[in-house]
Amino acid sequence: MNLQQALTFLTVAELGTVSKAALRLRVAQPALSRQIIGLERELGLQLFDRVGRRLLLTGEGEQLIAGCRLLLNSVNSLKEQAQLLRQGDTGVLRIAGSPQHIESVLSDFLHRYAERYPRVEIRIREGTGSEILAMLERGEVHLGQNLLHAVRLNEQHFGSLPLGSVQLLAACHPSMPLGPRCTIEIADLAELPLLLLDSGFGFRRAFDAASRMAGLKPKITFESRSPHTLLALAEAGHGVAIVPSQLQCWRYELRIVGLTHRRRVLQEPLTISWDKRRPLPRFATDYCAMLAAHMRETFPITRPTEPAAAKASVQTRAKRVPRKAKSSGG
């Protein structure tokens, strides 16, 4: 049964005569009668009883009519969905990003995007740089956020849009010896215990590249896939966490300084990428432009601590230490 036969069957059943059905469908009566006869032969069932000029559904026809209505309703729904998709303001958008990007950027940005595209469903995947590239290559996501130099994109297949830059930061307990300035040379981290992201993260590979450039052999105490695990360990005094400036650090009492090499700030450009072989709907291209604008307004999420603020933090923590109560004479 094709869609035309289903429509003919349903119309004749509703109107009860071939003549009325032919008028509604704008088909000649003989042609419509042949469609009904052909459908009955194809199904091997008698669908109508002929009573005078009227056609009444048989028991078998009654059982098939509900399925025909469901089929035609599904087709109409599909046509409506296709029309909405042509308008470019509805659909599903699959994106992938690092944990810190999702937490610090998307948690706010998605509300802004939903105001512009309320009928677009966002599905988010979390991953490291190499994992996000693999998702793009397999077609599992439309868009992937990454550090520009962390993965090798085939420029023939992938397009990208810059999203600003992420600075490399060192975060530690205020008592750690990072010097009085808002920055520290990466080579000066040589004797300090470092808390680093897992090597699968693009940010970690950016730090490793900067270390090689500076001749630094890091003293790695701990590696994690969770940036906030590093911050918690740093706050507790277990080492210096190397984190990106897009990470939210305000929940922790930390001294934060920027990393430099030969007094040049170490930072990496961020991009959002897509497969050029796969056409993007308008709501996806607008997502990229809106995200870039949002990040220009909000970056960096975390900045180096001012020396005065760092000193105040140490004093505040000292005041919080409870003093020993004086022993009272018995």
UniProtKB/TrEMBL annotation:
Biased composition (Basic residues): 317-330
UniProt keyword annotations, A-Z: DNA-binding, Transcription, Transcription regulation
InterPro entries xrefs: HTH-type_LysR_regulators, LysR_HTH_N, LysR_subst-bd, WH-like_DNA-bd_sf, WH_DNA-bd_sf
Domain HTH lysR-type: 1-58
Signal peptide annotation: none
Protein name: LysR family transcriptional regulator
Membrane-traversing stretches: none
